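[Target chain]
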Amino acid sequence: MADNDNFRSKTGSSFSADGFAVVFRKDKMVLDFKNTVPRLDQVGENKKRTMVSEHQPILLTPERAKALKKLLEGNIKKYEEKHGEIPEPGTEKSEDIQSDQSHDYIA
């Protein structure tokens, strides 16, 4: 790529998701990735356990969502050819990844 003073690229911070949901309406789909972790807070003399949930939503047009699906399917196939089959969620060898069912609305 040629040098161009008008081009800037920024990489965001990494986010580890332990759950996800998809919501949509006619013109957009939202992939909502979440990470929930326990935290121990000091409240005066007492310690209080708090659950902290972070969300990283990604908004896509239906066309971009379908392109992402195709990209993921191709890369999963390549991954499994190289490293073996990925277990389905809920099986013994898989991580306990939580996924909400898709909804046909955006809350």
Summary: The chain has a mean pLDDT of 84. The longest strand covers residues 28-43.
